Amino acid sequence: MDGFENYCKNCFCELTxxxxxxxxxFDNDTENPGEFLPLGHALAGRYVVxxxxxxxSDGAVYSAYDKILKxxxxxxxxxxxxxxxxxxxxxEIHVRKRFKDDFDKYKKAFCDLWQTLEKMRSLSAIxxxxxxxxxxxxxxxxxxxxxxxxxxxxLLHQAGNRTDWEHARIMFMPVLTTIENLHAxxxxxxxxxxxNLLLCRDGKVRLTGFVVADANRQGTPLAFNEKPGYTAIExxxxxxxxxxxxxxxxxxxxxxxxxxxxxxxxxxxxxxxDKLMIPNAVAEKMPIYVIKALGSGLQIRPExxxxxxxxxxxxxxxxxxxxxxxSGAARAQAHSDTAExxxxxxxxxxxxxxxxxxxxxxxxxxxTKAVIITCVVVIVLAVAAVAGVLIARQIAxxxxxxxxxxxxxxxxxxxxTPGYTRDEIQQNATWNNQFNLSYTEEYNSDVEEGIVFAQSxxxxxxxxxxxxxxxxxxxxTHMETLPDVGGMREEDARSxxxxxxxxxxxxxxxxxxxxxxxxxxxxxxxxxAAGSEYEVGSEVIIQVYGEATTAPSTxxxxxxxxxxxxxxGQIVTExxxxxxxxxxxxxxxFGGLFx
Length: 595
Hints:
Elements: E1 42-43, E2 47-56, E3 59-66, E4 71-78, E5 84-85, E6 94-95, H1 100-119, E7 129-135, E8 138-144, E9 148-150, H2 151-156, H3 165-184, E10 197-200, E11 205-207, H4 244-260, H5 267-270, H6 280-283, H7 288-297, H8 309-317, H9 320-340, H10 353-358, H11 368-399, E12 409-411, H12 422-426, H13 429-434, E13 436-442, E14 452-455, E15 462-464, E16 468-474, E17 479-481, H14 490-499, E18 503-511, E19 526-527, E20 533-535, E21 539-548, E22 553-554, E23 563-564, H15 588-593
Parallel strand pairs: 13-16, 18-21
Antiparallel strand pairs: 1-2, 2-3, 3-4, 4-8, 5-6, 7-8, 9-10, 10-11, 12-15, 14-16, 17-20, 19-21, 22-23
Helix pairs in contact: 3-4, 3-8, 7-8
């Protein structure tokens, strides 16, 4: 073991006395189960294998130590439980002959997956992968280790087993960006769940639990990696294809769990009872657009579900793109309704041609010609009498010089409700002949850009020809680019953002003494991020360093130096800068997990 006999095989801190680690409480006399690599086994000449942490469908994950980097790591070993095992005392993987083809096929898929992730190690929401190699007849992937607590465990220690949307938004949104990048590279995670979302010591939330793709689908040679409540229906049934929407279902289910306090029902049972209940006490504290986003992301049938990470982000942000689509749909419906119910004056129905042909002939009248002539004469005399009266009145009116001549008048149409565009109104010759129409442009986040939403003269009023009517045209949502306020003092950052029309919420973040108290974090110090387009009037969260504190030191697997961790006893989300409720150093949860 090259001098590592006196180090814990779980956390790799030095054992001061006995086999029980004073740091993590792991008993080093405990051996890994026989089918897994033994404690202290060496891999690739540089890695020391420690405790087996988790058994997954396509392999096992070990705590380990990198002797070159002098750092704790994790190693995943490809060892699909349905296809292989290890004979006790033998490091080589044992594969029965009839499973050899499947084993080799999935070993290649395992290597391809982890080599792709190795190239994407810059993504902030996955654990960086920095080595993939083959040994012992199988393959291994090496990941950086960062102290963490699974989201599931974190939520179990919160009031009501849940958190609020502001906390959840800060935790989840950066992960959604990473998922979008994974999808762009053709990778579907397929097993997103609260156990695979880690709240890490460095403040970031990271996605873990990657397995070979076929492990996430029922009916393959690999054991089904089912996550009840988070596994989508297409992973159970071959009638539906797996795609980005599969991860959207699971990710939305994680948000549901975080906000509501319990797991959603599994997808199979939801086929017969597709009700997702949110207690009123919880729902009333959630923005309505978040509730709608949950409903869309958790649709059972993939074709009805939110399709992409980008679309889910828009829904969770209540972005202008979503509002514009909703407005456009409403306007299209308004036009459709108008077309389907035309305004037609009632009239007597004409006799159908067939009925006219079948009608019996009228009885022959005596002296028909004489009757017609008589009627015509009567009508002519009546018209002449009426004309005489009108002419007499007109002459009398002309003699009264003070009587005004009446102007043309028209009823004002409803320009604003149907959703007309400015161009549509300008192209209507009748309206422009009857009225003097002018336009003013205003920001309106509820109405799509270019749509008329108000008029200065109410619809239905009768006005003289040429009356001026001012129509208000929407300029859409008022967006501004968020400036970078990182490094500014709190009051300067507030002033900068409020002058642009944003509301500002300040969240205090831990300070290890290397930062100036009362200044905004320079890295990931605001949400949304600097440079993004954001709706004026919306809330911007800035993270401000609090009073400097000093944390106790921790022991590393080397006697040359010790380090101090400024976040000892806390979870500090870097994207939020906020210490979660219950994350106090005196708290049993985080104090125990992070030393």
